[in-house]
Specification:
Length: 451
């Protein structure tokens, strides 16, 4: 819970744009010295992704150099900077800087929270703990949707600037991951971290469990070697190439599902789709549904097979996006859809719910599980960087895509990507639920002599 306070803080930065974008572009009510133009609005939305591209490299290096804990503490600083810029900035350039800072924080959060959780969690609950990441992200998004509806522009920033501060206060009391400490040959600290994380006591049973865990961690560290000395041969084995390929495809599909772009432009999407409901209220409804989906994910993550859950939720997302596209098409074709005014909100809510149950959180759970020990930081950084590149393209040109393809064409494109994701997962992604990281490597085609 403590580590995911930073996920909550990050979620508020994701939810900030949708309720306040209409205010920023308002000629009479903009809190800036001049109203934001349409082109400037697309840059405000997409510069978060630019910051995240550079942040992934920075925090990927930091995670190995200074450790997971110190690096996670570092993610709070750009988020504090984001809310400071929003609170005191008066120009669009200040908002550009704010979004870049939010992106730096997002890069660290998306890379380090799943990594930290994977390295501290027991195999039987690793998936459930991993799903809390998206749950807290979505909670922060919803809270900001609500704040943006009922609180003023500046009041919101004055409140949310304290969330990353609370994270620093709570998280500094937690230990570094045992896996990282063993890799750094700090065995006493690793044992102490295990005692805190597992609740081990001096009982004979717990002592035996401690010895077993330490032996496993030492073996993994010996196999991992020095991750700062990666060579071309480290990328030679088939299972390594397969893991990286799966990771890159999964993070791409995570963004091509359209969910992140739809959340960023939620209010505009409902208006363009022809919905007669208040756009801000519609956004709050979607946020609630998204949160419900994330909570459901924590309940089913370690009860359903990963493959089954991903395929079902990807197909469900495909169906919801298709229905939203149908409504938008009928609206453009001048068909009377007044009796179906609820359909855009219902369709998008269903997409966000079903994707939050499986497709979205599973991306990060599976990615952290399938990457080999030695390449986990580098591979995670590579995949996350690529995800933010794809995200930048989608968010920056989402409005242009709607102009060219129409709302219906854009929704059908996202639907097709979700359908492809279901097929890809069924054919290429291994089952990881309840398996140790070594067992997953064997499933990926790793030779037992390389373990």
């Amino acid at each position: 819970m403590a580590v995911n306070i930073i996920s909550l803080a990050q979620g508020t930065t994701f939810g900030w744009l949708s309720p306040y974008l209409p205010l920023l572009i308002s000629i009479t009510e903009s809190p800036l010295d001049a109203p934001v133009t349409d082109i400037q609005a697309t840059w405000i939305a997409s510069l978060l992704c630019v910051g995240a591209i550079f942040g992934t490299v920075l925090f990927g290096w930091s995670a190995d150099r200074f450790g997971r804990k110190v690096s996670l503490c570092g993610t709070a600083l750009p988020l504090i900077g984001f809310w400071s810029c929003v609170a005191f900035g008066r120009s669009v350039e200040t908002l550009y800087l704010a979004r870049v800072l939010a992106g730096l924080g997002a890069a660290g959060v998306f890379l380090l929270v799943p990594l930290y959780v994977t390295e501290i969690a027991e195999d039987r609950i690793r998936g459930t703990l991993g799903s809390f990441f998206i749950l807290f992200i979505n909670t922060g998004t919803l809270v900001c949707f609500i704040a943006g509806t009922y609180l003023s522009y500046h009041t919101t920033s004055y409140i949310f600037i304290f969330v990353p501060v609370v994270f620093l206060i709570c998280f500094t009391r937690l230990p570094e991951t045992p896996q990282y400490l063993v890799h750094r040959n700090n065995l006493p600290a690793a044992e102490n971290a295990l005692k805190i994380l597992r609740g081990y006591t001096a009982s004979p049973e717990h002592v035996d469990l401690m010895k077993k865990d330490m032996a496993q961690l030492i073996a993994q560290a010996a196999n991992r070697g020095d991750s700062s000395g990666l060579t071309r041969s480290d990328f030679g084995p088939f299972y390594v190439k397969k893991a990286l390929m799966i990771g890159l495809v999964l993070v791409t599909l995570n963004q091509l599902s359209g969910c992140f772009a739809l959340i960023q432009y939620a209010a505009q999407v409902f208006a363009d789709a022809g919905s007669e409901m208040d756009s801000k209220i519609s956004s709050i409804i979607v946020g609630i549904i998204q949160l419900a989906g994330s909570y459901t994910s924590t309940l089913v993550m370690d009860r359903w097979r990963r493959k089954t859950l991903y395929i079902v939720t990807a197909l469900g997302s495909c169906l919801g996006l298709t229905m939203m596209g149908v409504y938008a098409y009928l609206s453009v074709a001048k068909v009377d859809v007044s009796q179906l005014y609820w359909l855009p909100v219902a369709s998008l809510s269903f997409v966000i719910f079903i994707a939050s149950v499986g497709m979205l959180p599973l991306t990060f759970v599976i990615l952290s599980e399938i990457l080999p020990d030695k390449l986990r930081s580098f591979g995670g950084s590579l995949c996350t960087t690529f995800m933010w590149v794809v995200s930048f393209v989608i968010v920056k040109y989402f409005a242009a895509a709607i102009e060219v393809l129409g709302m219906h064409g854009s929704m059908w494109f996202f639907a097709g990507c979700c359908l492809f994701g279901a097929v890809f997962n069924g054919l290429f992604v291994p089952e990881t639920r309840g398996k140790s990281l070594d067992e997953i490597k064997l499933t990926m085609g790793c030779d037992s002599t390389d373990m």
